[in-house]
Amino acid sequence: MNTQTSLSSSRAAAPLPRIAVLATGGTIAGAAADATNTAGYQAGVVGVEQLLSVVPALSTVAHVVPEQTASIDSKDMSMPLWTTLAQRVNALVAADDIDGVVITHGTDTLEETAYLLHLTVKSDKPVVLTAAMRPASALSADGPLNLLNAVTVAANAAARGQGVLVAFNNKIHSARDVVKTSTYAVDAFQSPEIGALGWVQDGRVEFQRSVVRAHTRATEFVIGANWPHVEIVASYAGVSRIAVDALVTAGVRGIVVAGTGNGSIHASLAQALADAASQGVAVVRSSRVGSGHVMRNGAAADDALGFVSAGSLNPYKARVLLMLALAAGATGPVALQRAFDMY
Q: Is 187 known as a binding-site position?
């Protein structure tokens, strides 16, 4: 018997990975009356079966198990849907007959959903989000290739243990690092501070670095029914304390401030936030800049005021982590700063 032929035959006969594809709506499932219209469309109207039908190459990559989880414009993402999605992903990755999960999502809040799952999925199995900047009805729609690449990444053994990933425009990003950086370009998602994890093209997947910070199985976070009320305020020229005072009156558990520069805060807003912290409201300093990190100011400022530094997390991801940390029982700036330093 020819050994090489035998090995080739056994490889060819190996079963394809089973990848669950959860559709939630978004531009990737959007449609417009005119194929040249990439702005005036309705998101989330194309079902998962139709999305899959235009990518016949998927059948050579994985056995796809489709599921319509939601049909929304991701600008309308909600806490109950986050709970549903996270619980469903955890149920799927716990099943022996599922090797990975792909989630099609709108681009507007993709980075928030991805980071939420990065902190709450309890498995090493790949979970990959993807999306599109052009609706399914558009000329040169980018959704089909992004979907094929996402399934290719989820089916690849190298994606195991990397946490939740985002496959977009041939790049593979960590959910912690990735942000949307353009309102229209097909390369809208970038990891500005340290770059993508790797790339996927023509069926080939290559990781060039690994995720370092704790995620998925290494976190204490679990999805529950109750979400602590956390809001975001911004610092800018002439800002008043009105918004902070109103949020404290409304009973928020935490406030993330999108500060200027290195998380700096206008004096009027800083006093309002200090008053909020003295009343037990968690205050986290982030930055509106778009890249870089917010340094902890130590005893001279943060320690004295009871503030927490978000590090390199933008305000929207900082809000996700703050909600999860508060829900997990972290109280006070010391415990919260530990969470931001770890995750």
A: no
pLDDT at 327: 96
Contact 62, 17 (CB under 8 A): yes
The continuous run of DSSP H or E covering 255 comes out as strand 254-259
Identified catalytic residue from 107, 120, 130, 152 = 107
- To the query of whether residue 331 is one of the catalytic residues in this protein, the response is no
Percent of the chain residues past pLDDT 90, beyond the cut: 90
User: Could you read off the pLDDT of 219-243 as tens digits, one per residue?
Assistant: 999 998 789 999 999 999 999 999 9
Complete domains list, the chain, with CATH: 15-218 (3.40.50.1170), 230-342 (3.40.50.40)
Q: Tell me, yes or no, if 107 is annotated catalytic.
A: yes
> Exposed e or buried b for every residue in 11-50, given b needs 16+ CB within 10 A?
eeeeeebbbbbbbbbbbbbbbbeeeeebeebbbbbbebee
Q: Is 53 annotated as a binding residue?
A: no
CB contact set of 214 (below 8 Å; sequence gap of 6+)? 342, 343
| Confidence at residue 3, expressed as pLDDT on a 0 to 100 scale | 47
Residues 116-132 have pLDDT tens digits of: 999 999 999 999 999 99
Which pLDDT band, with edges at 50, 70 and 90, does 210 fall under? very high
Counted residue by residue, the chain has a size of 343
Q: How distant, in Å, are the alpha carbons of 1, 11, 15, 16 from that of 5?
A: 8, 10, 18, 20
**pLDDT score recorded for residue 128:** 98
73 is in an annotated binding site: no
Residues 24, 27, 130, 219: which is the catalytic one? 27
